[in-house]
Amino acid sequence: MNHTNYSVFIRLLYRLPCYILGLVLFSLILLAISAFIPRKWHYYLPTDCDMQICVSNTGVHFNIIVPTKNNFFDWHKFFSISKVDIDPAPDYNYLSFGWGDKDFYMLTPSLSDLKFSTTLKALFIPTSSVMYVKGYQVIPTDLEVKCVRVSKNDYSRLMEYIQGSFQLDIKGKTVRLGNGHTVNAGFYAAVGSYSILRNCNSWTASGLRRANINTPLWDGLSTAIIFHLKNSCNLE
C-alpha cells in the first residue's frame, strides 16, 4: 500500500464511526416516521359492531383485554381460568393477554425493572417465548387502556390468533410455566420467536390487524399503536 492509499484508508477509518452513527440516526428517523404512518388509509367499515376489545399499556408491555366469556366466545373451554393464577377468588370477567421473550417478560414486571442487559439479550439472544395471562373483575383503571368495537367475524379472528399463540402439550393442553407478577396472573409457554423485528408490541399489533384494526407501519412502540387505535366498525 503506497502512502496515498494509506492516507485514504486512515481517513476512512476515522470517519467510520460517523458513518455508523449517521446510519443509526437515519434508521431511527425512518422508524419514528413509520410509527405514525397507518398501514391502511381507507378500508371498508362493517356495521355489526357487537364486540368490544381493549388494549392496555403497562409502559413496557402492550396487552389485549377481552371478556372471559360472552355469547360468542368462552375462554373457559380453552384452559382452566381458576389455574391461571394464585388468587383465591379468580372469578374474572376479563382476561388480558400478552406475548414476549421468556426471560424479558418474566424478569420485567414494570418500567422500573427494565434493565439494559435484559433488553439487549432479548433483542439479539432471544429465549423461548411466553404468553402472559392476567385476570380482571373490571377493565383496569390504573393502566392506560383504550377500547374499540369490532364485528363478530373480526373478533373471532382475534380469538383464533390468541389461541394459536399458546404452545400446547401432547394432550392439546396449555403449558403453565409459573406465577405472574401479581396474584391474578400467570405465564404460559408460547409459540414464535422474539426478535428486534418482532417484539411484544408487534404481537399485539398483529392480533389487532386480524380484527381489522389499523396499526402503524412500524408497530414496535405501544404509543404508536394507541395513536392509531380506532373502531374498525361504522358506528353511525
Topology summary:
Elements: H1 3-34, E1 51-57, E2 62-67, E3 94-101, H2 102-107, H3 116-124, E4 128-136, E5 144-150, H4 152-164, E6 176-179, E7 185-193, H5 200-210, H6 222-228
Antiparallel strand pairs: 1-2, 1-5, 2-3, 3-4, 4-7, 6-7
Helix pairs in contact: 4-5
How many beta strands in the DSSP annotation? 7
Overall SS class: alpha+beta
Question: How far apart are the first and last residues' alpha carbons, in Å?
Answer: 74 Å
Strand content: 15-25%
Question: Considering DSSP H and I runs of 4 or more, what fraction of the residues is helical?
Answer: 25-40%
**Residue runs with pLDDT of under 50 for 5 or more positions:** none
Shape annotation: globular
Query: Measured on Cα atoms, how large is the radius of gyration?
Result: 21 Å
Q: Compute the average pLDDT.
A: 76
DSSP helical segment count: 6
Number of domains: 1
Query: Tell me about the biggest sheet?
Result: 7 strands, antiparallel
Write out the strand line-up for the largest beta sheet, numbering strands in chain order: 5-1-2-3-4-7-6
Order of helices and strands: HEEEHHEEHEEHH
